Structures are given as structure tokens and as C-alpha cells.
Amino acid sequence: MKELKLDEKTYFNKISFPSFERIKKGPVAIIECIEDIPCNPCETICKFGAIKVGFPITNLPILDEEKCTGCGRCVPVCPGLAIFVLDYNFNEKDCLLTIPYEFLPLPEEDEKVKCLDRDGKFVCDGKIIKVIPPERNAMTAIISFAFPKKYYNKIRSFKR
Amino acid sequence: MEEKDLVIIGGGPAGLCSAISARKKGIDVLIIDENLRPGGQLFKQIHRFFGSKEHMAGVRGFIIGEKLLKEVKELGVEVWLNSIAYGIFKDKIIGVIKDGKNTHIKAKSIIISTGATENPLSFPNWTLPGVMGAGACQTMINIHRVLPGKKVLMIGSGNVGLIVSYQLLQAGAEVVGIVEIMPKIGGYLVHAAKIKRFGVPIYLSTTILEGVGKDEIKGAVICPVDENFKPIIKRKKYIDVDLICIAVGLTPLNELLYQAGCLFTYKGYLGGLVALHNENMETTVENIFVAGDCSGIEEASTAMEEGKLAGIAASEKIRNKKWEEEKEEIRKHLNDFRIGTFGEKRKLSKEEIIKEYYERIKT
Fold first, then answer.
1. What's the pTM value of the predicted model, to 2 decimals?
2. Strand ranges in B119-271 using DSSP code E only, listed in sequence order
């Protein structure tokens, strides 16, 4: 049966994906929003002016990779749960991905997890590094988890 | 018989907003709602809404619902709950079953904001327990906290199907798949991505052939379709499920508008037959207004704006005043929402409705 497939190609050339040079410099937002949705909280929340939607608000968000500090304030406000922050230099081996997470129970820091790609397929093992509980961001928890750098553009979620 | 300036039938997002805007104009308002709590579908919307800052973007639906209820209470709007408005008769007399007893109320003006109903989909065994509308399922998991199934098949990949699938995952169910008869998904890709990344398959060009089970649903047979939507039977597949959710669109709930004698038109992009109305949301029957999904299926955000518009317009007539600037501001907000792939078509349909209103009101 024909299935909807999602991977890095789904977003290739359709989003303002940060350049690899920028990714190597440190934390940066990755916005996987490729449809003309009338929505702009990411633009409103960014105090560095790094995300531009403009008018009409169906424009796709454009990331100014030099202005983005990877602070992650845009992560919980996106109603589409489509913004992540990638820290490529988390340590020598691993990168760190920060995602919005709306499931209970929450994982615990240092917990081992199975990292999944955009289709929910298992890719590799990973580890939960940081959990910001849901109360802090209007009921959206923010989870940061680490996994091998080579999968930085593949992994988008985890299962326990 | 009791008399009211303005009676609003249906206390969802449109009805609540129209009550608030009319009450602010000093109008005596009554809301009639058949449920035990007003708010319509808002309280089961646990996800964040799209939009901009001015339109409470990023706020979860039920939070918006709580805010509206608080405002309605503070303004002293009268609300009849557990009350079914069953008919609109001559001289705007409304028949209501209130707490099981028949009563009548006379209104100077009526706003009908009755919302919509889920479309059914028939297939063998669709009457068995274990087949339900996705919206009903959403009410069960998010309002009543009851999980109606553990292994779920969702039929339809519009935003309702995608969002309810995600919320079923949140509620602890396994969603074994979503089937979509079209070759592409009906809803937004971001909603699909949210469930894909947890491993839920979305089958395209696929339909359900039958539910399987004797006393309740135990499984389903799904099957790919060809370009003419004909099932390719030799490729059918059985899957174990105990719940089949139907998310194949909504139809405006507009019987009261028919009964009141309003003229209708057919608009496919708005969910079917809808009452003609002008730029004030007034139907072809003077002093009967319409707002929200029953005037065409859209979203809570547009329902709220239409409600405000109808509330002010009804107040203008009751008070014999004009608040044109306020109405113009609301129309601007409505246009802000009606953009993009989905919004643009609805905007055109709404414009056609207003045009047809003026053509047919003359004759």
C-alpha cells in the first residue's frame, strides 16, 4: 500500500535550512514548515528578529541563520510542533536535538531512548539530556536528547 | 410568553463571541445550548491553534473556551443549558425543550450558531460498536477521559483525522494507521509529521472495505484504490483493530435555518448547503443571523469573528444604531484568516454567498 513518506528530502530546498557551516558553529533553529498556514507565533516570539514571516502571514518562515542564537524560545510556541533546535557540537561524538514533547509520562534525564526518524523508524540509540517540564511553556514539555552527529538531519523524535 | 432582545442558539465559539459583543452593546442576551456546559467543541481542542498574536495564536483551544466562558459570566449573559431549540416559528417564537419541559420564547433577533455534524461513512459492519466519528472519539478522550479503543484505524487524513490520531496517541492508544482515499493527505503536513514521527503509517489511495466482527469491531479490511477510486481487491489487507474512527468531513447543522425559511445555496468548500447571508451575517429572513460552522465549515478562529460580527449587527438593529467601523475591523480579521491553500477557497465561497444573497433577496 502506498504510504506517505517523510524524510529530509520532503523539506529539501523548501525550508530555510541552516547551512552546514552555521550548524557547525553551534545551536540553531530548524523550522520544518513548508505549507502556507496562516500562522506566525515563531516570528512574534523571536527577540533576535531571526525568523521572518511578514505579510501575508501565510508566508513560510525564513530563518536568518546569523541572527539565530539557538535559544529555543520558538520551539514550544509553534502550533505545528515543527521547530527544533540542533546543537551539532554537543560533544565530540554526539549532537543534541531539542524538541517539543506532549506525552506523559515524561522521560527522565540520562534515560536511554530509541531515536526515530521522521517516519517513526528506529535509527539508533540516544540519551535524554534535559527535560523542561510542561508547566514552563503552557503545557508543552521541551526535551533535549543526544545521538550520533551523523544523524543530525534524520532524527526528529524518540521512543522509550 | 417570555421575550428577549436577542436569542443565540448554540453556545460554541461563534455563539459565545456573539453574546459577548452584543452584551457589550447593552443588549439583553440569552444563549440556548443543548449541552451541560457551553463552549461547543472548544473544550476538546487540547492543541495549540494556528494564527497570529491578535488571534490568540499558539493558545490551546480549551484555554480560549475558558476565557470566553469567564467573559460571558462577568457580563451577565443568561445561559440555558440542557436546552434544545427545536423550532423557529412565526414572529421569531422559538420552541425549546428546557430541562425536559416544553417552553416558548419570543425574540426580536436570533443568531443561529449551531455548528456542524460529522459526516458518516457506510461500509459493511459500520453499525457495530467500535465504529465512531473522530469528533465523538475526541470528546470521549479529552472531555470524558475515556479511551474508546486501544488499537485504532482512522479513516480520513483531513485535519480532524490527523489531530484526533495524535490525541489518541497522547491518550495512550495505538493508532495502527490512517487511510486516505485521495493520493495525498487532506490536512496540513505539520499535523501529519507529528504522528508520522511516532511511527503511525498514513496509507494514501486506500479505503476501508469492511469492518470485521460479530458483536463488536475486531478488525478491518483496507484496500488500495486505482485512479478511479475503485478498490484493487486482490491487494486488500486485514488489520486487527478495536476502534474505527471516521473523519470524512463535516456538514453544517442548519435545520433551524431551513425551518425559519432562510434561502440556501450549495458550497462544496464550505461543507454543503449553507444559508445565504449578507456582510452582516444576516440571512434572507430579517433579524435572523448565522455564524460559525453552520454558515459554512471553517475553524474556531473564523467562527469567533463571525460571531462577533453577527452580535454587533444584531445589536445595531435592536438599538437602531450603527457600529460600522467595528464591523469593518472584524471583516478585516476574517479576511486575514481566509488566506492560504484552504482559506482562499472558503473566502471566495463566502463572497459568492453574499453576492447571491443580494441577487435573490430582490426577487
1. 0.96
2. 131-133, 151-155, 174-179, 202-203, 206-212, 219-224, 237-240, 243-246, 250-252, 264-267
